[in-house]
Amino acid sequence: MPLLRDLLPLLAIQSTLLIATLVLGPGNLADVRVQLTWTGFVALGWLIAPSWVGSHSSLIRRHLAAMISAVALHGLLAFAASLLGFGMNTYLAIWAVGLLSAGICRREHLGRALPTAIGLPGGHGVLILTLIVFSVCVYRTPRSNDIHQFLLQQQDMLEHASLRVSSIGMSAMEVDQPMPRWRSHYWHSLPGMIAYTSGIAVDQVLLRYATIPVAFSVLLCLAEVLRSLAGKRVSYPFVLIAMLGPILLWYRNFNAFNYSFRITNNLLLDKDIALFFLIPSTLWLAQGWIHGKSRYCIPLLGLLPALVRFHPLTAIYLLLLIAPLGILVTPADRTGIRRTATLALATLLLCVAVVLIGDAQSNHEQIRQIIQIDYEASLDRRPIHYWVGFYNTIPGTALPCDTTEWVGDRFHLKHSLITGCGLLATMHLGVLVLGVRVLLGKCTGRTRRLLGSGLSTIGVLWGMWLVSGIFLTRYPHYAAGYERLHWFAYPIASTVVAPAIASCMPRRGRRKIGTALLVFITVSAVAFRFEIATPLKNIRGLNSLLDVEIAGMSQRRANWQTIPSTRTLDDLRPHYLQPSDRALLLAKESTQHYWLMRQGVFWSDPYVEAFAWFHRGDNFRTDRRYFYDLLDRQNVSGLAEWIAKKDITLIIDLREGGDRFLDQLSRQHNLPMHRVEPGVWRIDRPRAPTSFDNAVK
């Protein structure tokens, strides 16, 4: 059957991934359900891809085109759902109809065309198997930095089977709309759809079950994009070592602002899927369109909703990449130059549109004031309540920060953002190697283009560092966005490093060296899975992030193994929580409790608080003062009146000494309440008179 034969490579890849997950994971039935759902997601793109990428593309290129098609369709459907208000059932119906229609059209095309089949060439097959093993071993329980920021919304969207952005938690702040940053939710709606389709709780989908298939698809696509940008003379193993070398060999710095950290983070987070799939795929499509493949403009346009609403900084990164990409791929003819200029103008307009839409963090002045208030309170021996990096915008603070520092009266980016990142530091060496080859005349036109692209990227990187002292000193509240602008360089850096490494290898031995590199990557991943440190740990100058992460991975795995795959959102609902309750949560981790936040009163987050302050003014400041005085267990006055005004019925303090503190609070403020369970106290409201009471009177 032609259609089945056409789908067979995709099914073979996904089946191998599932088997590896079940064996190495170890996996369970939830993995089967989630990966079948993911296969259905990619399958629609697989059937559509030949209409614009061609029927004779390689297996890996077909997979890249399939992912681009599927993600573009998802972005378009998420946009339509947000605009028209249809829910998850309608999304699934549209996807099923699309899958059926694409299958029929593809079958008819295959019936008319000459028989073709996508084989599994040895090099491609070994590369795919290497990435399968790496994904299963490394992304079973990834670090998942920042993933909880959007979990409440994903749970709420799933609870209501809706694809519209949720404003859960804002009602606690007496604001009835979502914070602007939350509106960039198109990617985050996809795990909700996977959870809805598979029947697995969305937090488990996010943190355990979808991490492997998503990581594998992203890494495979990234390898194809980088090889296409680097040139066909660079084989896949050298591309792979350029991608994974900063993790396995020349890892340098453990913080959330470098390449090694981000690419091993949970790729279900918006910023990471944008960095490692959306932006590279856009560059690949742009390269194809510039080179005369006119059909590539169709998926390029289809990705617009994703470019706008996956992550707000995506358009900024693309704008910074215009010059390096133009140098790398623009042919010396009028058509190519005209198309590059068109893309540059389109990217500039896209940036303007994103700024006007306003999905990035807003209310910067309120954020800055909140941080200032909290820092000044900490000088009176009270704890700070937010991420420590926020406070470095205040002159004279001694709190540590990985990204910025005050030098005299000027606020600067740290140069370690560039020199401390394994990939960006290696890019400088790669540019040096390519430069030497150009000077010696041992180069092609492609090498010169790679050198020019790398030099322009380095120029932009150090230019941002140089002007940071002027810009950030004047606008310190923009530091949170400025400190991550260097991420734009990742695709160009890997593209430069791969041919630089390949050019240092003897031509006759490159095949054997490439095989050795794939074996090394596989062995490193398997050792990590079984918590075995690699020999690199004892070699000075070589470092593996996986060796550093063994203890953390082991703890995350142990935590998740205690959670049954059948657990649902309803199972998390506290037995004591009544529909009419309003809960005051005195815990820093309150944002992880969906049912309590749904009925909560106030919560600790500077962005949310700034948004509420903007809308409510001084009334918000009153609420904030009461909340943080209680959170810090300070003396407060007028507490009973405030609690009555906020209609609070539950006070929850699960920290050590919580019961003692709440009992003391009840006595000091003549606030009648009783203990429901450890750390949970219910306020006793005066009982309304009944008809029996009136009769007795």
TrEMBL record:
<feature type="transmembrane region" description="Helical">
    <location>
        <begin position="118"/>
        <end position="141"/>
    </location>
</feature>
<feature type="transmembrane region" description="Helical">
    <location>
        <begin position="7"/>
        <end position="24"/>
    </location>
</feature>
<feature type="transmembrane region" description="Helical">
    <location>
        <begin position="452"/>
        <end position="475"/>
    </location>
</feature>
<keyword id="KW-0812">Transmembrane</keyword>
<feature type="transmembrane region" description="Helical">
    <location>
        <begin position="36"/>
        <end position="53"/>
    </location>
</feature>
<feature type="transmembrane region" description="Helical">
    <location>
        <begin position="209"/>
        <end position="229"/>
    </location>
</feature>
<feature type="transmembrane region" description="Helical">
    <location>
        <begin position="487"/>
        <end position="506"/>
    </location>
</feature>
<feature type="transmembrane region" description="Helical">
    <location>
        <begin position="273"/>
        <end position="290"/>
    </location>
</feature>
<protein>
    <recommendedName>
        <fullName>Glycosyltransferase RgtA/B/C/D-like domain-containing protein</fullName>
    </recommendedName>
</protein>
<keyword id="KW-1133">Transmembrane helix</keyword>
<feature type="transmembrane region" description="Helical">
    <location>
        <begin position="513"/>
        <end position="530"/>
    </location>
</feature>
<feature type="transmembrane region" description="Helical">
    <location>
        <begin position="341"/>
        <end position="358"/>
    </location>
</feature>
<feature type="transmembrane region" description="Helical">
    <location>
        <begin position="235"/>
        <end position="252"/>
    </location>
</feature>
<feature type="transmembrane region" description="Helical">
    <location>
        <begin position="417"/>
        <end position="440"/>
    </location>
</feature>
<feature type="transmembrane region" description="Helical">
    <location>
        <begin position="310"/>
        <end position="329"/>
    </location>
</feature>
<keyword id="KW-0472">Membrane</keyword>
